[in-house]
Every structure is written in structure tokens, then in C-alpha cells.
Design brief:
By secondary structure, this protein is α+β, with helices and mostly antiparallel strands. It has helices spanning 52-58, 108-115, 136-141, 154-157, 164-171; strands at residues 10-14, 27-34, 37-42, 46-51, 70-73, 77-86, 96-98, 102-105, 123-132, 146-150.
Length: 186
């Protein structure tokens, strides 16, 4: 029996002309997708003027020797809720393995560990998430809007946020400059 085409551990790339300005050129790291819905973290855009050290100070955590990296705009849902996408070499009280490709943590313990130099070896921080209800993403995938690509963790850690959209398409052999912003009709 063939399993359903769930997208956990993959990336969603917004197609040109997706029709929702919040997702224009979006790159979403899909962290959960099943029959009940889906959750992803945006990794293609950072929040101007907000770095990790600012976030740590809001929680009264000494930044220590942690690098002051930009914080990503994870999505429009719960924009004050934080998430850390990271390598699976660290695990905390709520860490979730994402398809064996990366891990997701959403509690303050991962921020403390990063500040103390004892966290995951590679990570990125985001505020907010993209969420879909039961069957919603499955329906969206049948229309012009999203393109999914394998979840190569190098896109998370080795590519700058503003280059991830084009890089994601390039990894699938697609030049995004050649994409149309309209769906075809057969």
C-alpha cells in the first residue's frame, strides 16, 4: 500500500503569483504534515532589526558567546511564538525529529543551550509559523501556488535566507526566472 504524499521534512517554495503577499517567494521548512493538518516554519525571510541576542535578552538570558544571527519570519500564525530548527545532535523537552533531516524545538531550553554553547551544532531561530488545517495544504498542492522539494538540510544552514528561494528551485533543476505566475489550463 502506497503512503499518502505527506510533506514532513521537505521544503515548500512559493510559486510566482501565489496570490498571497505574505507568502511571496516564501520558503517553508515543513515540520509536520499528516491527515489532520500541517505546520511549517518560514526560512526565506528574516525580521529586520531583530537578532538572536535581542531575543535572548527578552528572556533574561545572557547571550554568552552565541553568534548574533538574524531571526527568521516563521509565518503569520502566532508571530510572537519562537521556534528553533536545528541539527538532531541536541534534544530538549519538546524536540521533534523532522523526517530524520532536522529537528524542531519550541521551548526556551534550546535558547539557553545555544547561549551556553551547549546547544545544537547548527540552528536557526524563527518567530511564527505557517499552519494548515485538515486537508487544506493537500488542496493547495493541487492548485498553482506551492512547489515541494526534498528537505536537504544544507538549504537551512548553508544558504543565506534571501537566497533560499532561488536555491531551492535550483536544487530541483529549475530556474525560477523562467516560471510563469499563472497556472495553465488543459
Amino acid at each position: 500500500m502506497e503512503s499518502a504524499p505527506f510533506l514532513t521534512g521537505q521544503f515548500l517554495l512559493a510559486m510566482p503569483g501565489i496570490g498571497d503577499p505574505r507568502f511571496e517567494r516564501a520558503v517553508i521548512a515543513m515540520c509536520a504534515h499528516d491527515a489532520d493538518g500541517a505546520l511549517g516554519i518560514g526560512i526565506g525571510e528574516t525580521i529586520d532589526g531583530l537578532g538572536l541576542h535581542d531575543l535572548l535578552r527578552q528572556f533574561d538570558i545572557d547571550p554568552g558567546a552565541s553568534p548574533d544571527r538574524a531571526v527568521h519570519f516563521g509565518g503569520p500564525v502566532e508571530p510572537r511564538r519562537g521556534f528553533v530548527l536545528h541539527t538532531p545532535d541536541w534534544s530538549g523537552q519538546d524536540t521533534v525529529d523532522v523526517g530524520g533531516r532536522w529537528a524542531l524545538s519550541g521551548t526556551i531550553d534550546v535558547l539557553r543551550a545555544i547561549a551556553e554553547g551547549e546547544g545544537p551544532s547548527r540552528w536557526l531561530v524563527a518567530l511564527g509559523y505557517a499552519g494548515w488545517g485538515e486537508g487544506q495544504l493537500d488542496a493547495e498542492m493541487t492548485r498553482h501556488g506551492w512547489f515541494n522539494t526534498p528537505g536537504d538540510a544544507r538549504l537551512l544552514y548553508d544558504v543565506e535566507a534571501d537566497a533560499r528561494w532561488a536555491s531551492g528551485f535550483a536544487s530541483a533543476g529549475i530556474d525560477p526566472r523562467l516560471l510563469s505566475n499563472a497556472a495553465g489550463k488543459a
